[in-house]
Amino acid sequence: MVILITGITSGFGKAMAERLASEGHKVYGTHRKAKEFIPGVTYIKAESTVQEEVEAAVKQVVDAEGVIDVFINNAGMGIGGPLEFCSIEDCQRQMDVNFMGMVRYIREVVPVMRKQGHGHIICSIGGLVGLPYQGMYSASKFAIEGYCEALRLEIRGFGINVTTIEPGDFATAFTAQRKSVDNPAVHEAYPGYARSLASIEHDENSGLKPEFLAKKISKIIRKKRPGYHYIISTFLQKLSVFARTILPPRWFAWVMSVYYKL
Predict the structure, then answer these.
(1) Are 101 and 140 in contact (CB under 8 A)?
(2) Active site residue: 137, 147, 190, 193, which one?
(3) C-alpha–C-alpha distance, residues 220 and 215, integer Å
(4) Structure confidence by residue, pLDDT tens digits, 27-59
(5) Which residues pair with 170 in a beta bridge?
(6) At what angle do helices 135-155 and 88-95 cross, to 10 degrees?
(7) Rounded to whole angstroms, how far apart are CA atoms 185 and 183?
(8) How many Å apart are CA 216 and CA 194, to the nearest integer?
(9) What is the pLDDT of residues 171-217, one digit of tens each?
(10) Which of 30, 49, 63, 132 fits a 20 to 30 Å CA distance from 91?
(11) Within a 10 A sphere around the Cβ of 258, how many other Cβ atoms?
């Protein structure tokens, strides 16, 4: 299969590119500033916030291969901190990279898949639970969930599958790269912020390895009828998602506040 993955320099993107290329797929991956290159993977320098670069990336794959069988939207970034202290500029950047970056690529990919009569779009989200001190990140992922739900209905008649992936806590460079709001005023207004952030980062750093997710993706793209949604996480995190559906909202909020040491 011909596979295009966004953001392959680290974490999920790198693990998926390595796994899928090793299985014989033709893998193309976008990057901003790659320093190491995976054998068998074609690297395309493209910024998801620049329309012309997105168009050129998709065109390069189509010109070389004639098709795009699978598109995996993986590129993203995170902003941490109390919502009232997140600047408008950071909020816009968060949505532009995580949500609009995906929109730009899908607008270019769907016509290709519609013309060829098949395709599979996979988007990584985190939009099932709003996480404290990661509100803008959660908002961007909730937007992806809604977009993909609508997209799935619109293109189902063209032989194109749309799958959303819900990863739990994974040990990747994402934690270190998260831009967190950090100044004396924040800690004075939210005295529990540092404690909660330390708990969040501990869970992420001790989480599953990205190779675990890559193995799951490998199985998903081989399915004739892939599912609409997959939660790829520990049992406890899957249980928390289930709890959200059965507990009264106030009870679930209490559970979350205890878990995140708010």
Answers:
(1) no
(2) 137
(3) 9
(4) 999 998 878 899 999 999 999 999 999 999 999
(5) 208
(6) 30
(7) 6
(8) 34
(9) 666 666 777 777 888 888 988 888 888 877 777 776 678 898 899 99
(10) 30
(11) 9
Residue 248 has phi, psi (to 5 degrees) of -60, 145
- Pick from 40, 35, 38: nearest CA to 2: 40
Amino acid (1-letter code) at residue 203: D
Output the six-digit token pair for 206.
């001790």
Known catalytic membership, residue 137: yes
